[in-house]
Fold each of these.
Amino acid sequence: MNITGFVNTFEVAIFRHRSAVLGIFTLLSLFFLYQATQIKLDAGFMKNIPLNHSYMQTYLKHREDLGGANNILVALCDKRSDIFNKRFFNRLKSVHDEMVQIPGVNKSQVKSLFSPGTRFVEVVEDGFAGGPVIPADFKPDYDGLSIVRSNIEKAGIIGRMVSSDFKCAMVTAQLLEVNPTTGEKLDTITFANTVEQKIRGTFEDKSVTIHIIGFAKMIGDVANGAKNVLVFFAIAIGITALMVFFFSRNILLTLLPITCSLVAVIWQMGLLTTLGFGIDPMSILVPFLIFAIGVSHGVQMINAVGKQVAEGKSSKDAAQSSFRRLLLPGGVALLSDTVGFITLLAIDIGIIRELAITASLGVAIIIFTNLILLPVLMSYVNFSQKYKDRVSRPSQLAEEVWRFFALFARPTASKVIIVIMIVGFVFGFIRSLDMKIGDLHAGAAPLHEYSRYNKDTFLITDKFAITTDIISVIAEAEPQSCTDFSVMTLVDQFQWRMANVEGVQSTVSLASISKLFNAAFNEGNPKWRVLPRNEQTLAQATSRIETSSGLLNRDCSVMPILVFLEDHKAETIERVVKAAKEASKVLDSGKVQFKLASGPVGVMAATNEVVSSAQIPMMLYVYGAVIALCLLSFRSVRATISVIIPLFIVSTLAQALMTKLEIGLTVFTLPVIALGVGIGVDYGIYILSSMSQQIRDGMPIPQAYLIALRERGGAVLFTGITLAIGVSTWVFSTLKFQMDMGILLTFMFIVNMLGAIVMLPAIAAVLWPKNKEQRR
Amino acid sequence: MKKLFVPIILSLWSIVAIASGDLAAFKAKLVEKSLLTDIVKLPNRNIVAVGERGHVIVSEDGEKWVQSEVPVSSNLTAVHFIDNRRGWAVGHHATIIHTSDGGKTWFRQLYLPDLEKPFLDVYFRNGKEGIAIGAYGLFFRTEDGGATWSEEFHEEFLSEDDQFYLKDLRLDDEEAYENERRFILVHFNRIYADGVTLFMTGENGMLSKSNDMGRSWIKLPTVYIGSFFDLIRTQRSSLLAVGLRGTIFKSDDHGESWHRVNSKSTSTINSVLEDQFGRLVLVGNGGAIMVSTDDGKTFRSVPLDGGEAIVNAVPHKNKLILVTEAGIKVIEAGAL
């Protein structure tokens, strides 16, 4: 059976059993609506990292031993004076005690001035003296606080637990990914909200400010920001409805496509719950996209039905014939959207895969709701004579616009356009080469620089000698390597090489701390700041360092070298990773290997590498799929070229735009290119499918194009604008990544539409010169 | 006084050292900011500083520094020059290196990592005669500019009890005697040349002097149980010894009797020097800088911002150039 035969059979089957079709849709919608109400926000650390990357394998291997990248830092700052007052110390103790109680916190890894492991050591004539920084009999009075102050100075914790200006103190905690007693996974968002309420909510006031950072907190803030998306959603629906009304001048015809698109969103959300997924804050924008895509295809449908009704067909006949006419181009367009999304599965990062699944499900659903449900619903509509009159009377303005657009297919104009395209492409291509991978700005990338979270990040990195931009390289050796001078020396040399890399702020490892201890054992004399060659002496120095420092594991076979960076810009990360790889090439030996990487920047490095290596395959897949679908539906290489070239130019320009706006290629922006291509191809498919028969018949391109514009031009223009409006509201999002995605998608939708209207006819005119000659 | 000579054949040790795979110092941009332990000013006003990982840096103006070619990566602890060209630096793994081009390139004269002892100071009277001292009584001498070095054991620093104990042990068990002897002496921290007289400071309040280039030592009275790290002859001919936990002792009778000077500090003092204004300047851990304008009777504390441990310093023009745990630091001498 050929495709036309199939469409016909399908059409007959559906329109003979309209009420049954409606019944099934209603039942399914009710079911999915119920499921959709059960949907949960679902965020996790693991989903954000490329688990199969070699760096992350190293990270996962040692996570148990060394504690991971999932920490939370709480800084308390006294607004009025320094921290040495009763009120502040009581507050600090309360925060410390509360942190221990919060579910998800590793109780033994909560550290502050009040944790028992916080001790000072000093050298005296007959050896060492030391004790807890806050003595057991501590009272927050003048004498007690003076003792604590001098102990803090001796303990060498300024910059870590106390800020260098003595105005802030820090409580740090490590999180458990899995609750050891219940086996439950950490619910990051609940945790973040608990911290917000129980710590900031309870303990912040006029005198003491509280600043919280850490991956979990960031996700919590992202989730809260993502909730605001509902507002944008409502706005987008409102504007879109107005647009549809403006287009159709009919309330019922406005409600139908909007309703069908909302049904698609409901199905999509319901299906996610049914399949056991939650919705990630990172992919909460997908419903927008589904809605906008649904509306744009719905408009094509009401456009087609309206035009046929005006020609005198009955509603049912018009709906039925529109169904037949649009099922193929609409189906191909939606299928290419789906494929565009599915290509994202090639990227081995959990949240991108979720996005791929969520979005491709949603688009596939639109095939049902807007290509089947919508025409069936429309077949019931009674069109008034007034409506028919208005639609059948061609608008003078539209006709003028279409005639103007048709000029693009004229021989001279088309050549000019093609020259401009080439120039634009070359310019865009050169700029696109400068596109950066990864985050280009300080602070947490998903959030704006002015967000509370990033302000807290800046405050903490400013006041403390702490940066969240840490990459740790892990030295793997035989057990008991702490006492092996040759291993420790290699670790030390590795660390020194890393310390000298541009962009590295400081470094620390078991070796560097051991040297400090060895000097301490020798009266604090800096001349003794060495790794002792003698095994017992080396053991004496290293044994003072506890595993809780994260600088060694229990049997001392794993020793990370922590490298603190000035920022997490892609080029900094690349430089440091390259230096680490070079150093390990020189220093790796039978006794010790240096493995990348852990720490937040280790995760970023792996993610950047995955994103950057996924970029080209993803483009190949998405273009491959789109080209295949075009070839299949047009059966013409020239038609396919006419559709694909504008798309390619636009995605190159989008990359140039990213360079210009300093938007890096990240987990969030990488999908945009695939989405933009997948959705952008729709315009070309609608226009060209309307022209293809005429072209085959030998009609000159400008004429064929004019006919296509009359039939679908309005819908295409409208579609581009609708999609653009739907995503442009994201620009106002509290989340930086949504803003970036919004800008890029708006650009891609609008410019792809222009590509289909301006570039496509120009290319077609050049590719079918014979049609042109005939006209003469 | 009895001395024990242990001659060493240099070439043999060199082979061992090469086999042990010690790397040449890695050239690094942070070298000026890494731990530095000693600094000297040559007659031509060039400045040479040494530090961890075999770092040696040379400056002609006290601002720009150039890292030298050094064949070892052991931490260096002290440097000494006799003129504009010839100098020696010593350090951990019993390393001694030599330069004859003002510090630009260095050659290894001694490297004995298996001794497990560091040198802590070096002194040359001229181009031929020199001594290097260090931990656990480490003491090496050369008579030929360092072509050959021989070890000395300065038994005179042992108490009478310890001397008897060693003698007995030697009769019973030669091996135990050798082991015991390796670590029985105190650390020798610093040599100060006062004309032909050498003063040596060390652990357990050790102060001593020698008039025969260190072949024999006269112990000065023990007035303190902690370590002394440096000593100086003041303009008015007093002696000032400085050390652990802010300890300062002063002697106005050439070391016969000593009295404590209150430093009002518990920071260990690593070095003492006379600055360009003739003042005494002490530098030490925790960024300690103390200045005396009354020949060491009283001191005023003017700590370094940032509190890095200062190991030594030299005056340069109107500045003091400090070597610290965080590398070179320069301060205005007039501001002290």
Note: The domain at 1-158 of chain B is CATH 2.120.10.30 (Neuraminidase).
Amino acid sequence: MSLWRDIKGTIQPFWVTLRYLFCRPVTICYPEQKQTPAPRYRGRLILTRDPDGEERCVACYLCSAACPVDCISMQATEREDGRRYAAWFRINFSRCIFCGLCTEACPTLAIQMTADYELATRELLQVVYEKDELLIDGCGKNAQYNFYRLAGIGVAAPRGANPGESPPEDIKSNLP
Amino acid sequence: MPTLIIDNLTVTVPEGTNILEAARQLGIEIPHFCHHEALGSVGACRLCAVEILAGPVKGIQMSCMVPAKDDMVVDTCSAEVLAYRAQVIEWLMINHPHDCPVCDEGGECQLQDMTVAGGHGIRRYSGPKRTHQNQNLGPFISHEMNRCIQCYRCVRTYQDYCGGTDFGVLGARQRLYFGRFNDGPLESPFAGNLVDVCPTGVFTDKTYRFKSRLWDLQEAPSICPHCSLGCAVIPGARYRELQRRRARTNKRTNGHFICDRGRFGYGYVNHPDRPRHPLVGHRRVTWQEGLAALQNKLQELGELFGAGSIGLLSSSRATLETQFLTKRWATSLGSDQVCFEAHPVRDQGARVAASQPLDRSASLEDVRNCDLAVLIGADPLSEAPMLALALRQAARRGARIVVADPRPVVLPMACERHAVSTDKLARLLRGLSRPQQSALPASLEELGGSLSQALLSARSPVLIGGTDLLGPQGILALLEAAEACSQPEHPCRTMLLLGGPNSFGGALLSADGPGFDSLLEGMEQGRIKALLCFEADPLADFPDRKRIRAALSRLDLLAVFDCAATATVQEADLFFPTTAVEESTGTLINNEGRMQTFEQVLSAGTPIAESAGGSHPPRFFTRDIPGTDPQPAWGTLGALMGRCADLGALRREIEKADARFAGLSLLDANGEGRRIAIPRSRPVALQPAVANAVAPDQLSLLVTETLFGSELLSSLSPCLQEAIPAPFVMLHPQDAMRLKLEEGKKVTLATPLGDLTLILRIQQDMVPGVAIVPRLRGTALESLVPGSEPLPCRIEKA
């Protein structure tokens, strides 16, 4: 029995090699030839804008908290109309492991992953992205969501004017 | 002492303890919103439900409302209870704006934690959400009423605990609104506590708005350095910037709360003008060059004029370690010219205060539990704000509070007020030592006598005095009065308000050494050629500014070690940056003789927000972090003396050298601190200072501390600037009428130090014949220092 197994074990690999000699190769000549990644490929991170064209990111620090390699840092600040946004936002792609936990943590759909994987460079600082390099002009994968139109604190719409809200109460009246 | 069973564990608790507190003793935390240890229970949030299986009451009950009884059997997490709590959470979330990403409470929000713990995820109720307009509550507190869950903690804190009257609950049913009647800054000096007690994000710290999340903050147990009470705080820092302070619990001192001066006075640590590099004659040098320059100069002076030509001055801001090493270094230099306070009255006052019998010195806890408090020459809200809050708690329990003061002392509750002028306080104290019965006190002695009688019959009386107004003689008289009013079974305790967070430590170390006035005389006579200031600002703290300026200009060497841009730093020949309290470890001894250590929160460095100019951090790699030069003063002193910078060894050495500091090396920064072992010996009675003659048509000018703007470090804090009042002068209506002056108008105050234009405030509760001005640093009133003899002055229309 063991002799038969040895013979089979010797011939079979050669047979596999021989078979693949006549198949189409899967290797492509990168970079002349490029592969199209899947739509949900986890590549370079971007910051998106809401349908009104405002920055989606509210600098809530959840992505930096979720990041297992601590490659995201930011500082929140406040605009005159009460909108919270990132004064600066930095992702160090030399550290990023493209795990996507930040996009899962993001409550405003601001940080999203793209299919871009071409980040290799000889200059380390070139892969440290600042906010102006991260922020795009579009909505990314979701064209509808606007956090401030759902959170009832009166930034995008006046207080009490978001869907599902009643107008502000008159506290100086006790009428029902 | 009922014994009951909670979750199959048996516990015995004192009578009257509720089930929630009893469970906490077993380490079982029952979820709750409205219950707070300091505020008590109201049963408003319905979250702390437990199932009582056996006992006087059965079924689902609110654990905060049911007192523990014998033979009770409680289940804190039966299936029914968990379902009940999940339901409550879902109700509370009906009107929630779902804005956690932009809420500063996120990460330290009880509602967030409970919602997650209760398993509530998707809002099922489809009706409209109730909304509210917010109010502008001033520079300290942000308001977001849509997040409210109606737990009433804020009203109970603000109105009941802190005695504020301008904030409360409005509306009815589900429209309950917690705010002021109209927009405007919250008036209570304890308003900042709303931030700590609010279980959601209705009240958040405006000075910390959107700066960080709790999980990103560097935090450590620390001590508030803005008055002599030594309240426990937790500062939080991020990106080399101190971003906030919140209250820590120390039941012996502050309890659960802190004042707004402590909470918002942190900004001096990040101040853009803070000197962060060693300077030789305003030229930036390295530490080595600076220390070499200092040592060369000292050696030169020592050889020429002898070691006695070197004076060393520390202050009540310096830690015990710094003060100890200052003294050690003076000894090793061979100089006996060392003192620990630039203000002679405060220095002598602290020396007398440190001699009080420590079993009779009152902690804030003793004040909260007293039944009679007599305040003589003490203005708690200005000199030690948390004392006012402690007095209020005593008053809420029915204690009698008596205030005898020339100033219009404001307390957050009703009290018995006697306007007594400064020079007559001594007569009152004399009367206090001789108990006598008199229904209608005609003279001050008789008032003192009747108070003394009351002190003798009280169960736990406290006698409170301030060093600024009483001076060393007054403090001595107050201690004698307390002795006279003490019964063996219920002693009359004393609480003395001192100048700074470590005045007590300085007083213990100074023994019978010289005061700053004798150093000053030496400087004027040319005996002292060099003055080394360790976190001391003699130029601003010594009452006679002209005299100190002239004396400092005669010096060959003025070396200053400090963490703030003080007036003395501007004059210094050599400057060495030291760390702020939050940037190092150390020990402070508060006004009752309690040693408390604090831990390092952040490393000294220029905040990233400042070094990056508001933009992103720099895009280059470097080993040097900007602004990291500040060193703890004790570390620098150690380096000058050629010792290794080991704090543990230093603390053991202090313990060994002085039995009074026994237990220093065992102190836990998270603990309650430890009273020093033995008081210092009582200094010999001092000659009373010569009072300035006041002509009949003149007023006597009294300078006092005020809540915001008097204390050095907090006055530098940018967040407090809005709360600092415009310079004003207070007059009795009688004097105002005589001088034909009107409230709110500008007046000119003519003093021997120059003319000042101030706004007039008329105050009913003060003594006539006196003009009272607050000490306000950085204003026209800068040069007036409290604790000095009243000056003659005149007031006329501007």
Note: The first strand of chain B starts at residue 3 and ends at 6.
